[in-house]
Amino acid sequence: xxxxxxxxxxxxxxxxxxxxxxxxxxxxxxxxxxxxxxxxxxxxxxxxxxxxxxxxxxxxxxxxxxxxxxxxxxxxxxxxxxxxxxxxxxxxxxxxxxxxxxxxxxxxxxxxxxxxxxxxxxxxxxxxxxxxxxxxxxxxxxxxxxxxxxxxxxxxxxxxxxxxxxxxxxxxxxxxxxxxxxxxxxxxxxxxxxxxxxxxxxxxxxxxxxxxxxxxxxxxxxxxxxxxxxxxxxxxxxxxxxxxxxxxxxxxxxxxxx
Length: 258
What we know:
This protein has helices at residues 2-33, 40-52, 55-77, 86-124, 127-133, 138-175, 181-191, 194-220, 226-256. It is mostly helical.
């Protein structure tokens, strides 16, 4: 019995220890986000990296998601003669769920890995220690700009993804399924509510914070060597993706639970 319980206990204690370290890191990071000195050029650089350079992959994901969603909805709704509900399903699915979640996962794979690799390499090559020696706080210089940029740019990315995704559904519905363009747009505009878009943008802000936090945390605590940096990169992407799905449910429950 003792042989069985010991690994479980060690895993449980290790999980609590990791949760505690991550919580302390998150609190410190948020504190340094609102504490001077600020580095506007670094924040702008991270905004461009997260927002502008992630736009192609997020846009492609969104447009094909909207197109597939329209096709699949038509296949299912045709059985019940409910094809007119396709615009409603496309717009609510994109704005509430698919837009924020897919954009978050794409950015986590691209930006989360890059952040962890960059900061992890700085840790391994002792550049972070050099910043401390030069009286520059690494949390202010490395972590805070990335958190601010992630928090600001993910909602903008998701807003663009929502528009592109709905447009993808429109293209398939008009040119392949034979919908009337005016009727499709009218149904879309009449059905979507501000809360649908707002909930998606709130999710996007939370996801942006999670992606930047996981990338910075795992990179900042990277182990020595190339293997340590690779492990930090993998952990950043996996943990950010899992937390995105967990927080997606929590925020959905907060907005739409009855």
